[in-house]
Each structure stands twice: as C-alpha cells, then as structure tokens.
Amino acid sequence: MDEPKEPGRRGRGRRPAAEVRQAVLETAGTMLFEAGLTGITFEKVAARAGASKMTLYKWWPSPGALAFEAYFTAVEDTLAFADTGDIERDLTAQLHSFVGLLTGVPAGPVIAQLVGAAQTDPALADALAQHYVRPRRRLAGDRLTQAQRVGQIRADVDPQVVVDQLWGACYHRLMMPEESLDTAFADALIGNLLRGIRG
C-alpha cells in the first residue's frame, strides 16, 4: 500500500486511499496543464504527489488514462448540461461553455493532445470512451429526447446525429484549425440545426 511522506508532515503515517487518489489527480492535472501530455509519467506524478509509483500502476493502466481522468476531474463542472425547459437556451449555454473550454489555454491544447494520443493508446482510448464520450453523449441525447417529448424537436430526429452535428463540428475545428472556433460559430450551428429539426 501507499506510505507517502507528505510535505510538512513528520513520520510515515498512511493517508486514506481516497485522499491519495485525489492528491494524485490534482497533481496530474496541474502537471498536464503546465507541460502537456508528454510531461505525464507515473514516476513524475508519484514523486510530486508524494505517492507510491506502484499505487499509480494499480489504479491506472497507463499515464494517458491517468492524464485523462485528471483532465476530466478538472473540467467536469464546466461541461454540465442544464435543463431549463428551453432546448435552444440549453444547447446555447452548453455549447458556449464547451467552446470556451476548447479555446482556452491550456485546456484546449490538452484535450487536442488527449484525443490525438487516444488513437495509439488503447488504455487512454478506453478511458476516454467510458468516462467522457459515452456519458456525455448520453447526457446530450437525454436532453434532446426530452425536448422531443414536449414538441420542441421533431419526433423523427435522431438525437445522436444531432450530437455529432453540434459537438462533432466543434471538435473538427479544434483538430483542423483552418476556421475559427468561437461562440459565433456555436450560435450559427445551433441556428442552422434548429431551423431543420424544430417540432
């Protein structure tokens, strides 16, 4: 088990596992935003967090998977999806937050690195799918389905295609930065889409 010596603490008393895990995630998040994905190794994170390297190997299958969880822990609140009863307002608020995250420094470059690295890191790809892509698609799909139930979106519209149209377009501009990614683009996406799918 983990027996770190915490900064400013004498002795070798064990910290609870939850406390160690939180310290590791916070440390990894800080390092990720400081130096990017290439700066994340189990050895570096363990040393800075005051944790055992073996503990990190036990909890995460790869440094990429750790980096992703640290990233998601840092931005989870920013990506919350409200339900005010007005689908246009909710889509606009969520997409504005998302675009702000993708265009911010250092969060935007970090998510681009994570998505790119996931193509060759199976553990990171699995973490990305399980803890980010699927849950977030489900949240958006559920909100769009609710809008269908109350007649704000046509019943024949596939919510998952709408997710791809909106968020996929933002990821496209993040990864292929030929055109600007901003809230004006988000508003144009939502406006064009809603003209075609409103109930």
Jot down its keywords.
199 residues; disordered N terminus; mainly alpha
Structure description:
It is a single chain. The protein is 68% helix and 0% strand. With 199 residues, it is mainly α. The longest helix has 28 residues, at 122-149.
Strand content: under 5%
Q: Please state the structural category.
A: mainly alpha
Element string (H = helix, E = strand): HHHHHHHHH
Q: What number is the mean pLDDT?
A: 88
**How many H/I helices?**
9
What general outline do the C-alpha atoms trace?
elongated
Largest sheet: none
Cα-atom radius of gyration: 20 Å
Helix fraction by DSSP (H/I, runs of at least 4)? 55-70%
Number of strands: 0
Please mark out the parts with pLDDT under 50 across 5 or more consecutive residues, or reply none.
Answer: 1-11
**Distance from first to last alpha carbon:** 57 Å
